[in-house]
Amino acid sequence: MSVAPPPTAPGFRWIDDGPAPVLVCEALAVVARHAFTSRQLRLRGGDAAAWSRAAATVGCAAGQVHRVRQVHGAHVVVVDALPTPDPAPEADALVTITPGAALAVVTADCVPILLADPVSGAVGAVHAGWRGTAANIAAAAVATLAERWGVAPDRLVAAIGPSIGACCYEVGEELNAAFAAAGHAPEVRAGWFSRGGSGRLRLDLWTANRDLLISAGLHAANVHIAGLCTKTHLDWFESYRAEGAGAGRLAALIVAPRRSSVP
Fold first, then answer.
1. What pTM value is reported for the model?
2. β 223-225/157-160 pair status
3. How confident is the model over 39-69, as pLDDT tens digits?
4. Residues 47, 45: Cα–Cα separation, whole Å
5. Is 34 helix (H, G, I), strand (E, B) or coil?
């Protein structure tokens, strides 16, 4: 890409030694191979070649990558040693402990969240749009990891990848009402919704998901935010808000590492 990559928050870095530049979180990289892809991958729908390139960014074949049909809900799929069913199940998060299994979600402004447990090797991938955030899909993924494999939430490392920032995410008053109806208290929502210079309401999905992960038991120091707005950096990311139906997708992928034993 001729345009230099946008600067990230501390703890993230760009890697450009594969089929396309990807962003990684340094703390998460210690635990599991993962990648947040860039626009250069040109991921469009079911393009098999693009998905092969996406899988290659984490050292996998496309057949190792498990995906779901994302529906902006709070359902979590547990991936075992079997291939993902065809058609893929409807869900917005996947978790696995199967060594070598790769999980992926796609976004084009929504929030991608990757999770990993350094002890068991269990990992998760989460797609959190505003509906999924209101429904607390992040906490649902954490709870599934805990229930299925005894993962202690305070061990988990989380990386929140590129997505639309509060700088660009103007929303209607009905979203605040929707979050209230989902049970989020006024004092909590006050940290997620604010007024921009135009007077329009803005939603901060980064802070919302960070707070929800911490409420689910993660240590604040283990929740890392890339701080990159997809709408702001169109040279590097895809944005539905900016490009409408013509927008491609970004992938967030993570691979379950091999462990000698599971506690």
1. 0.95
2. parallel
3. 998 887 678 889 999 999 999 998 889 999 9
4. 6
5. strand
